[in-house]
Amino acid sequence: MILRPNDISGPVKESADVCIIGSGCGGGASAKILSEAGKKVIVLEEGGNFTHNDFDMTEQTAYTNLYQQRAGQATDDLSVTVLQGKCVGGSSTVNWTTSLRTPEFVLDAWKKNFGVKDLSADDLEPYFDRIEKYLNVHIEPEENHNPNNRIILNGAKKLGYHARATGRNTNGCVKSGACGLGCPFDAKLSVDVTYIPDAVKAGALIFPNFRADKIEVSENRKHVRGTILDQTTRTPRYEFDIEAPIVIVAASAIHSPVLLLKSGIANSSGHVGKHLTFHLTSAVVGIFDEVIYPAGGIPQSAMCDEFLNKNGDGGGFWIEAVPVYPALAALSLPGFGEEHHAMMKKFINIGASIVLVKEIDSEGEVAVNSYGRPSISYSTGIKDRAYMKEGVNTAAKIHFAAGAKKVMTLHTTPTIFSSPSEIERQLENAQWGANEITMFSAHPLGTCRMGEDVRKSVVNSRCESHDVPGLFVIDGSVTPTSLGVNPQITILAIAEKNAERIAEHYR
Amino acid sequence: MKFRPSRRKFLKQTLAGTAALSAAQFIPITALAARNDVPGSLLFFSHHEFRIIRAVAESMIGLHGASSEPLHPHDVALRADQFLADAEPEIQEQFHLLLVVFNSPIFTFVFDFQLKSFLDMSKSERDAYLRGWMTSIFTFRRTAFQGLKRLCMSMYYTDSRSWNEIHYSGMFLPEDRQ
Ligand SMILES: Cc1cc2nc3c(=O)[nH]c(=O)nc-3n(C[C@H](O)[C@H](O)[C@H](O)COP(=O)(O)OP(=O)(O)OC[C@H]3O[C@@H](n4cnc5c(N)ncnc54)[C@H](O)[C@@H]3O)c2cc1C
Ligand code: SF4
Q: What are the DSSP calls for A230-249, one per residue?
């Protein structure tokens, strides 16, 4: 059952076998496995419950209802915008459907450097297989790539770089382009239309608009206390108290550490909130003679994967298409005023590709600000900055090879190339510091990392706190390093595997 | 039953939905003269702050305040007022502080050697002043610029009245939109 706002007329006090905080990839998958194993599961979700009828494909509605801080969440210095969902289904409700397995070299590094057990490529293979089947992960046929994705496929091919179609978790996609604004056709097989309904079928209770504020631990019981919010005004209505022997924190890599830090638990290692990775992202924008219309068609269906771990140092970058909507374009395009306005008037002729760097020497931190909310900081390392520069350079070349007449970066001071020969020199002179180039992240990870050394990690390989038995963190926080690929399949696989282990262990 | 409209019907419904939303949240098109006045009841800004943000919106978006433009800077500032009224307290606090620093002649002197508030500057002086914040060697000035840019751009471009001039007509590729 999914609780509706009208079902609540006072404070809520409940108990369960398992209380899960957050209903995204980590929380949703755990809820399904555990409720199907016969556990009484309650899922608390700070955001509201919205369905296809609520998704009107506008940025205004989507940002207001579905995103953390109305899509304005960012590092404290505003240098990196951190996009995350806040609704039933979490970020999966607004994600772009790219579905990729964790690279083997990443899983090997987790084992070697962090002692992570039972999460090798072989261990995860049956989970990847099962998830891909459940979510109908498939490659789009050639004719389904929109012009924005074709830039990557055609441009990379001309330059001899490896590029390919990505897997997508959809069924009956009508190519609207609205994945990032909530799929109004229920074609995107996100957590809100797959794991959550199946968990409900198996008896799970989903409590939308329930924000967990604190976890209290005593003996073998745990209480999750928090605030019930009004779905529209977001103002507090009542308080709640859920008691359960097992608590799974699945509030995402930004919000899980905040909850643990506020609760003063699970941090004997001092690593809660540390080691934040972003899969640091910037973009290039090409101006074409033909209409690209970057808002329409399948938003993300192709990538250039030539440069990930190419040097064997575990770093590198990846290039993907990015859907562009008017406000997103306006925020990203460089400069301001009439020049900026003139660029916006070319909206339908722009194509955009993102460059995502798998960090090896950059790191951030999530702390708690004086209002009890996340304070996010991040600093870029020399190696990653070099990869970003190489990635922007490569993406610009791909755009020219695909027919762009001009290509620009997202540097604050407009950096515009009229031919490939200008790229190198201009990028050499460009500034790469905070707020000198627009950066994003839609893949924050790593803030409660897993490992077997209690001094260097927050949870063990089963995602259980080293300090508090029965307290688990199962979401993007637990990855010990940046992944280099889009994370939803990795998080779902870790969640399914570890939820199964919880069901077995706590019979 | 599942809601599965045809693409065409869906687009119409979406636009109708957006219009309904607009009616609730957008500011009525006011007469130009009235747009130069500060509205009586503001939710977040003081009257003085409202004037600053209206001037920032004009420069930031590249508007001239002409009647032919889809949105007047006044409308952008009114939307920003509504938006910030619902923002997190730390963001509200930072914006009040930012506007004091941004407009104060003391700071314009410190940063740009001119003893004029932003509101008293000419259009070209305002552009140069904003450029100074955008490219400053001080991180906090670049951060502040980003904050103002985000606010103005998102208030302008999430408003469907601005979409015509950029030829944006909703989701779907143009060929799918019969
Ligand atoms: C725009 C966008 C596009 C993306 N595209 C892709 C893609 O194409 N492919 C891909 O693999 N990945 C993509 N991702 C990333 C992917 O969706 C996320 O990595 C994944 O969903 C993270 O799962 P999670 O469980 O860690 O957190 P989330 O899915 O973010 O879920 C966390 C949930 O916890 C809730 N919560 C937070 N705090 C509390 C609290 N105190 N109390 C109660 N609830 C709380 C939040 O509201 C949220 O719903 C994208 C993300 C975004 C934002
Ligand atoms: S592109 Fe496909 S999956 Fe994405 S919102 Fe549109 S119909 Fe849904």
A: -TTT--EEEEEEEEESEEEE
pLDDT tens-digit map of B81-138:
999 998 988 889 999 999 999 998 888 777 777 789 999 999 999 999 999 999 998 8
- Partners of B21 on chain A (C-beta within 8 Å) are 56, 58, 60-61
Q: What is the mean pLDDT of chain A?
A: 96
Q: Which of residues 57-76 of B touch A (CB under 8 A)?
A: 59-63
Whether complex ipTM tops 0.90: no
Strands A167-169 and A163-165: unpaired
Tokens of A170: 């959809």
Residues A294 and A185 grouped into a single domain: no
How far apart (Å, rounded) are the C-alpha atoms in residues A92 and A115?
Answer: 29
Provide the number of structural domains found in chain A. 2
Instruction: List, as one string, the DSSP characters of A427-441.
Output: HHHS--STTTB-EEE
Tokens of A350: 């722009």
Picking from A50, A42, A62, the residue whose alpha carbon sits closest to that of residue A192 is A50
Which H or E element spans position A167? strand A167-169
Residue of A186, A327, A329 lying closest to B2 (CB–CB): A186
Q: Note the Cα A484 to chain centre separation in Å.
A: 12
Residue A460 belongs to domain spanning: 5-66+86-136+181-271+447-505
Residue A385 main-chain phi, psi, to 5 deg: -65, -40
Residue A341 lies in a domain: yes
